[in-house]
Amino acid sequence: MGANPSKKSVNRLKQKVRNILRPCEKGSWPDVRDRLNDLLQGWSAYFCYGTIQIAYRAVERHVYNRVRRFLVDGHKVHSRGIRRFPSERVFGELGVLLPRPMKRVVRCVP
Predict the structure, then answer these.
(1) Of 5, 93, 83, 89, whose CA–CA distance to 43 is shortest?
(2) What is the Cα–Cα distance from 97 to 9, expressed in whole angstroms?
(3) pTM assigned to the model
(4) Three-state SS across the chain?
């Protein structure tokens, strides 16, 4: 048995991602990315217990699709943008955080 976020919580996060990555958003990519990363980091830290891989995969897929659509609209790409913005580039070079459980760091002071 393990705890996991409810569907309602996952849907609320998806709605917040949608609000940050609106097509009418005129902010620069670094500003939008930082707001998105803050949201994902906070959500991941709050739900860092239990077996929650299914929820994290759903959020990751949603974040990738929304970021890709946001970038395609901003760069006026006439395709779906999968080749230009693969997940490796979105979560790597473009700096979007993967929503993963946060590992706790234990520091020993000598």
Answers:
(1) 5
(2) 19
(3) 0.74
(4) CCCCCCHHHHHHHHHHHHHHCCCCCCCCHHHHHHHHHHHHHHHHHHCCCCCCHHHHHHHHHHHHHHHHHHHHHHHCCCCCCCCCCCHHHHHCCCCCCCCCCCCCCCCCCC
> Please, what's the b/e burial string for 69-97 (b: 16 or more CB within 10 A of its CB; e: otherwise)?
ebbbeeeeeeeebeeebebeebbeeeebe
Q: How far apart are CA 43 and CA 53, in angstroms?
A: 14
pLDDT in tens, 7-66: 898 899 999 999 998 877 777 888 989 999 999 988 888 877 766 677 788 888 999 999
Residue tagged 């976020």 (tokens): 5
- The pair of structure tokens assigned to 97 is 């955080």
Q: In a 3-state reduction of DSSP, which class is residue 40?
A: helix
Tell me which residue of 83, 60, 58 sits closest to 72, measured CA to CA: 83
pLDDT of residue 105: 45
